[in-house]
C-alpha cells in the first residue's frame, strides 16, 4: 500500500477544534498520514483565544526540514502563519524543497475577533506565498482583505476571485460560510471558469474550525491524487457532515465532528 502524506504548517489550538489539531484529525479521517510544523501555540477554547505564542522562525523551518528530509509529502497546507517573518520563511522553504501541491488557508481572524495574522503581514502573504499556491481558500472577509474589494453579491465574489488569481495563485476558492441564506455557496475559480459547491446551511453555533477542516480535507484529497475540483467536492461533503453532526462541548462555539464523514461511509 502506498501511504499518502500531507503536512500542515499552522497554529496549535489547545481546544482541539481548529488549527493543527483540526488538520491532523481531518487528514487521518481521509486516510492520509499527517505531519506538521507548528507556527504558534494558542491558548484557546470554545469561548475564544486567550493567548498567542508565536514560535521562532528557526523552529518553524527546522520542523519543515525534518519532515521534508526524511518523510516527504504529497500535499501541504498552511493555516495561521501570524507574521511576515514566518510567511517569508515558509515561502522560502516551499521553494527550497520544491513542494508543489500547496493549499493556502489565509487565516486572519478567529471567530471571537482575535487577530491570528499581524496586519503588516498581509503584503508578504500576497506577494511571497500566494504565487506559490495551487489553491487559496479565503472566507468572505479574507477574500475582501486580499482583493481590496467589498463582496455583496455573486458578481462581486467572482470579481474578487479574479483579482486574487491575478496575484499568481492557480485556483481561488471563496468559502460561503459568512454569507446569508438557507444554502451555502462556495465558489471555485480556476483561472478560466467558475464552479459552485453548495450545501444546506445548518443553524448551529458549533462551527469552530470549519475553515481549517475544509482546507485540510481539500489537502488530503489532493494528496491522494484528486483534481482541485474533485477535492473541493470532497471537502464540501466532509464539512457538511462535520457541521451537521457538530460536537456540543464547551459553552461557546463547539467544534465540528471530524468522524462524521467516515461514519457515513465516506473515506
Ligand atoms: N452553518 C453552516 N452550515 C453549512 N455549512 C457551513 C456553515 N458555516 C460554514 N459552512 C461551510 O464551511 C466551510 C468553511 O466556511 P467559512 O465558515 O466561510 O470559513 P471560515 O471558518 O474560514 O470562516 C465552507 O464550505 C462553508 O460553506
Ligand atoms: C490556531 C488556529 N488556527 C486557525 C483558526 C481559525 O480557524 P477557522 O477554521 O477559521 O475557525 P474559526 O476561528 O472561525 O472558528 C483558529 N481559531 N485557531
Automatic annotation (TrEMBL):
Family matches, as InterPro entries: HMP/HMP-P_kinase_dom, PM/HMP-P_kinase-1, Ribokinase-like
Keyword check for Kinase: yes
Pathway entry: Cofactor biosynthesis; thiamine diphosphate biosynthesis; 4-amino-2-methyl-5-diphosphomethylpyrimidine from 5-amino-1-(5-phospho-D-ribosyl)imidazole: step 3/3; Cofactor biosynthesis; thiamine diphosphate biosynthesis; 4-amino-2-methyl-5-diphosphomethylpyrimidine from 5-amino-1-(5-phospho-D-ribosyl)imidazole: step 2/3
Pfam families, per database record: Phos_pyr_kin
Entry-linked SUPFAM superfamilies: Ribokinase-like (SSF53613)
GO cellular component, one term: cytosol
Catalytic activity: 4-amino-5-hydroxymethyl-2-methylpyrimidine + ATP = 4-amino-2-methyl-5-(phosphooxymethyl)pyrimidine + ADP + H(+); 4-amino-2-methyl-5-(phosphooxymethyl)pyrimidine + ATP = 4-amino-2-methyl-5-(diphosphooxymethyl)pyrimidine + ADP
Gene3D superfamilies: 3.40.1190.20
Root EC class: transferase
EC number: 2.7.1.49, 2.7.4.7
Any GO BP: thiamine biosynthetic process
The Pyridoxamine kinase/Phosphomethylpyrimidine kinase domain, residue ranges: 13-257
Keywords: ATP-binding, Kinase, Nucleotide-binding, Thiamine biosynthesis, Transferase
Domain of life: Bacteria
Molecular function via GO: ATP binding; hydroxymethylpyrimidine kinase activity; phosphomethylpyrimidine kinase activity
UniProt record similarity statement: Belongs to the ThiD family.
UniProt-listed NCBIfam families: HMP-P_kinase
UniProt protein name: Hydroxymethylpyrimidine/phosphomethylpyrimidine kinase
Organism: Domibacillus antri
Amino acid at each position: 500500500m502506498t501511504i499518502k502524506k500531507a503536512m500542515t504548517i499552522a497554529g496549535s489550538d489547545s481546544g482541539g477544534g481548529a488549527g493543527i489539531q483540526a488538520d491532523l484529525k481531518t487528514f487521518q479521517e481521509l486516510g492520509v498520514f499527517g505531519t506538521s510544523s507548528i507556527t504558534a501555540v494558542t491558548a484557546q477554547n470554545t469561548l475564544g483565544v486567550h493567548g498567542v505564542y508565536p514560535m521562532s522562525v528557526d523552529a518553524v523551518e527546522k520542523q519543515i526540514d525534518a519532515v521534508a528530509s526524511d518523510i516527504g509529502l504529497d500535499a501541504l497546507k498552511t493555516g495561521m502563519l501570524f507574521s511576515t517573518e514566518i510567511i517569508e520563511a515558509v515561502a522560502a522553504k516551499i521553494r527550497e524543497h520544491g513542494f508543489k501541491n500547496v493549499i493556502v488557508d489565509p487565516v486572519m481572524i478567529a471567530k471571537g475577533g482575535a487577530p491570528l495574522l499581524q496586519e503588516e503581514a498581509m503584503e508578504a502573504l500576497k506577494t511571497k506565498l500566494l504565487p506559490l499556491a495551487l489553491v487559496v481558500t479565503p472566507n468572505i472577509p479574507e477574500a475582501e482583505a486580499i482583493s481590496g474589494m467589498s463582496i455583496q453579491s455573486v458578481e462581486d465574489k467572482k470579481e474578487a476571485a479574479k483579482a486574487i488569481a491575478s496575484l499568481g495563485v492557480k485556483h481561488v476558492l471563496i468559502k460561503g460560510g459568512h454569507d446569508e441564506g438557507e444554502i451555502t455557496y462556495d465558489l471555485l475559480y480556476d483561472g478560466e471558469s467558475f464552479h459552485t459547491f453548495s450545501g444546506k446551511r445548518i443553524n448551529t453555533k458549533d462551527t469552530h474550525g470549519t475553515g481549517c477542516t475544509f482546507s485540510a480535507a481539500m489537502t488530503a484529497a489532493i494528496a491522494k491524487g484528486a483534481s482541485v475540483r474533485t477535492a473541493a467536492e470532497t471537502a464540501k461533503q466532509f464539512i457538511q457532515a462535520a457541521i451537521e453532526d457538530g460536537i456540543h462541548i464547551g459553552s461557546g462555539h463547539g467544534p465540528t465532528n471530524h468522524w462524521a464523514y467516515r461514519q457515513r461511509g465516506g473515506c
